[in-house]
Every structure is written in C-alpha cells, then in structure tokens.
Design a protein that fits this description.
Elements: H1 9-36, H2 41-52, H3 54-66, H4 82-111, E1 119-122, E2 125-128, H5 129-158, H6 161-171, H7 173-188, H8 193-221, H9 236-248, E3 253-259, E4 262-268, H10 279-283, E5 291-297, H11 303-307
Parallel strand pairs: 4-5
Antiparallel strand pairs: 1-2, 3-4
Helix pairs in contact: 1-2, 1-3, 1-5, 2-4, 2-7, 2-8, 3-4, 3-6, 4-8, 5-6, 5-7, 7-8
Amino acid sequence: MSKLPEEIRGDMRKAKKLEWWTLVGMASVVVVMYFAMGGSQAMKTAFLEDLLGLVPAATFLLAARLEPKEPTERHPFGFVRVNSLAFLASAVVLAAMGFWLLYDGVTALMKGEHPSIGPVTMFGYTFWMGWLMIAALAYSIIIPTILGRLKKPVADNLRDKVLHTDAQMQKADWQTGLAGILGILGIGLGFWWADSAAAALISFSIIADGLKNAHTASAELLDGAPRKLKGSDISPEALRLQKRLRNQWPESTVRVRESGRYMIANVHGIGVPGEIPSLKDLMGEDPTWRLAEINFTPPNCTQEELRD
C-alpha cells in the first residue's frame, strides 16, 4: 500500500499542482485582504478565514509526500494513514478558529462597537475606503471559487478527504465574501451592527465545517467503516464490497475499515477461503485500487488475535 496505485498517479500529480497553485493564489488573497482590512470586523474575519485556507493545502502536500514512503521499523505498516491524520489536524484548526471568530464577533456586538470607514486617497483620487474593501472581498471570492471547482473532481477520483474538504471550503468562500460585502455596505448605510453580525455569521459556517470534518476524521482513525467524502455516512463503496463478500462467504462476519484512501476487509470465520474472486469481481464498478487488503481469520480466532 505504500506505493500509489498506477490508476491514480495522474490525479495525484494534478492534485499536488492545484495545491501549489492554492498556496500561491490564497497567499495573494491574504495580502490583498490584509492591506484592505481597515477596522472592519467582517473584513478581519474573512481575512483570517482566507489565511486558514492555506492549512488544508499545506497538510495535503505534506501528507502526499509522506504517504508513498516505505515502511520502517517504527512504522511497519507504512504511512498511508497520514492522510487521515492531516484531515483531522486541518479540521481541528478550522473548528478552533471558528469558535474564536464567533467569540470575537459576538463580543464586538455586545460592546456596541461602531466601526467607521473613512476616505482613502490613491493615485490622486479620494474615495470611500469601503469600495476598496468590497473589491478585495470580490477578489477573495474569485480565486478560491475557481480552485475549488478544479479540485472537486480530482478529490473524488483520489477519494481524498483533505483535498475534498479544501475544495468545499473554497467553493463556499462566496458566502464569506458576500457576508463581508453586506457588512461593509451596512456600515456605509449607517447600520453599525451589520459588520459584526456578518463576522459572526461567517464564523458559524467555519465551525460547522470544522466539527463535521473532525467527526469524520476521528471515525476513520478509530478504524471506523469507510465514510463518504462529504458527510459522516458510510461510503456506498464499502457497503457494496461488504455485500459481495457476504454473498461469497455467507457463513462469515465481514468487516470493512478505512486506511487513508484505501479499504481493508476482514472476513472472520473462514479458515480456508478457497478460490478468492478477482478484485474486479469484488469491487464491481467501483475502482479496484480502493481495496488494498482482504484478511481471513478462522472461526476459533480470539478477539485479541483478530485485532492484531
């Protein structure tokens, strides 16, 4: 399992290229947002979310570098689950930052802070700085939306939750940008609370994504059944594989767990499996590379032996 299957090597190269583009593109967004931020709470929240957008890309690239490494004495099963660890790390960071942003926004509302956006002079012209903020927010929408759209099919092909989460976060950035724009316009129209309310609204979206992803990542690291890329439901691929294995060995107990982007099946109660169907027969229309191992254990195998 340490070597990446031939079927997905092209997609992995494309994913790495997209994540390098993400680091460059989102870094430019962060710079633009920083200089246009001013005293707006919504702008600050959007800026920090864009900064967080660098985390999944960085963790994916790190995990992709470690995943193909050969097993070692300390890690005899290789590093294929580093992808799961990266997924959990990015989810925890996302949720923690979301809670902090929510606290910051609600505190500003309770204090009744009245942010003001004054004029700015650039290239000999003086205009309301809110227009500059809105332009920066628009730019912060365009770049991640394009990248997210490009990543989605690649993440589906790789069954990569880190890449899929990254794509979903970026696809949803238009909501953050729109909320920020509404907050800036609200200040311009005299609604002082609109800015902090927009910031709090953005933070709810961040918290929801973080907690949902942390739940899915934890289930995988606890040897749970393979989950869908989006949501915590069991993957249909795993259910179909389990059904085929039960049909092949009806007297057995079948368990399927996830290890990184792969599935490992355990057929308990079978001493000698006889003729084992091909991967194509077991996986059907699903990608054969997903099934990395099938382990058979005899009926008298103890629970301790089964875990080993």
